[in-house]
Amino acid sequence: MKTTINRVSEFVNKEVTIGVWLANKRSSGKIAFLQLRDGTGFIQGVVVKADVTEETFAAAKSITQESALYVTGTVVEDSRSPFGYEMQVSEIEIIHESKDYPITPKEHGTEFLMDHRHLWLRSKKQHAIMKIRNQIIQATYHFFEKEDFVKIDPPILTGSAAEGTTELFHTKYFDEEAYLSQSGQLYMEAAAMALGKVFSFGPTFRAEKSKTRRHLIEFWMIEPEMAFTTHEESLEIQEKYVQFIVESVLGNCQLELNTLGRSVEKLEQIKAPFPRITYDHAIELLKEKGFSDVEWGEDFGAPHETAIAESFDKPVFITHYPKEIKAFYMKPDPDRDDVVQCADLIAPEGYGEIIGGSARIDDMALMEQRYKEHNLSGEAYKWYLELRQYGSVPHAGFGLGLERTVAWICGVDHVRETIPFPRLLNRLYP
């Protein structure tokens, strides 16, 4: 019977054949332990010299790292294994022998591993991160379907910027100017006026010359937009969504979390509602924590966000930022014109902002004023202004950065490990 590693529990005490690669091995004189992987998981194959042919045992002793094999044997339960099962191997068929595999069990530098990212993905830790990323993606679709959102795909090539042109990749679109999208949000607002509650899930690009552990040049965003929705109602959806994806990972990825050494106790604390503090309060909190030079009107950097997060064991919303440091489309607070109805959700444990969101301006005259203040091209943004002209309603939305969220849930230090092939300031290969 041919099967895969993730399904061996269905074949306990039965003989199966699995197509695998050899991740690692060790052996003594009469027994060989093969660490096998097939993409669905990892399992140990035990080859006992007395139980197999000479040719099979010789193959077990000689096969090299990352060689491709068909392995046949009996599945047995094993309480010592993190996976819970192992395979008593009876036969090995070599499909392809790998020679001089560059990533050996010894330590390698980060740049070396990034140069070999196409191979590094095969390692147990990277496999676990990708499985958790996949679970978050699955949970995202499940959550928004359950909440009656419609998936909409905004364009990647755009003629306008969501938040200004300084961090955009410019390109020629035949005889017009175009940019790689930094956000699908403006288009999602149009979709929300047609379909009520919508979300997008796609790649975005920021030409930001940053080398921090939180930044990628190309990353994936989940961007919901909701008609007839207030800022407070949007916050409730955000915390409900984050709780849902954390619970989904806890329920389906225990083996992967164990592989990464991730503290599940901290993740189990992620229950809505999340604490909320205003920007004003955040400034006071930072001054109490020794940031004496922080001034009202400044945006927060990574050290500030980390210091604020240390005061909470859950993600925390920072709300009502100054209007001058936020995007042109954010709706002013009705009681204070100098701040807007927005929030950044800061993850615990120093992982920074994972969500940014706001209520959107729905008043035509105010949006026209914002266009003038931000020198926005009337022609490029004409369609966006028309959303306020024809049946404008209160609406709100947010964007969650997938890679930062994966980094936080996995407990990994750098977002470069949370995407299959990262694009960084100094890296376009492989």
TrEMBL record:
State the GO CC annotations. Answer: cytoplasm
Xref: Pfam families: tRNA-synt_2 (PF00152), tRNA_anti-codon (PF01336)
EC number per UniProt: 6.1.1.22
Q: Where in the cell?
A: Cytoplasm
> Which top-level group of life is the source organism from?
Bacteria
Record domain Aminoacyl-transfer RNA synthetases class-II family profile: where: 130-430
By its UniProt entry, which PROSITE patterns does this protein fall under? AA_TRNA_LIGASE_II
Q: Does the keyword Nucleotide-binding apply?
A: yes
Keywords associated with the record: Aminoacyl-tRNA synthetase, ATP-binding, Cytoplasm, Ligase, Nucleotide-binding, Protein biosynthesis
The entry assigns this protein to a family as follows: Belongs to the class-II aminoacyl-tRNA synthetase family.
| UniProt cross-references to HAMAP family, sorted A to Z | Asn_tRNA_synth
Query: What does the annotation say about its assembly with partners?
Result: Homodimer.
Instruction: Report the protein name in the record.
Output: Asparagine--tRNA ligase
Q: What is the lineage of its organism?
A: Bacteria, Bacillati, Bacillota, Bacilli, Bacillales
